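Researcher: Here's a chain I'd like modeled. Treat it as a single chain, no partners, no ligands.
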Amino acid sequence: MMNIQTNSTWNVVDKPYVTVITPVYNRQSTIKRAFESIQRQTFKNFEYIIIDDGSTDDSNAIARDFMNATNIPTMLITKGNGGVHSARNAGIKNARGGYILALTLMTNFCLTAWRSWFEDGKVYLQVSVMNTLKSKRDALMKMVMK
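Model: Modeled as a single isolated chain. Structure tokens:
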């Protein structure tokens, strides 16, 4: 059984450009850092879907608090544990954006900035990432989408 909640800004944006989805399972120790990173984004035309995949720690409460405090259109899906793939699928099923960006809390990367611009009919989404390892602190990843 799934429980879906949205914050007050969810219906303000009808067609977001990007949907960001984050599956969560027992990540109370790292989830706040990820939410802070989402909150700092300079690219604002996105919605955020958090999928709690049956966490037994405080991950759901932390996610709900973030959803209710942020002005980012946010949905929290709470479901029984089915694995990361079923969590991602639940997020994709509810996504309204033209592009989907799946973020996981299980990596060392935190997004710090997104920028998008149009050139020659292509969409370029630049993702700046920060790794907790000093040697990779200045990593920059670019994704080109058509």
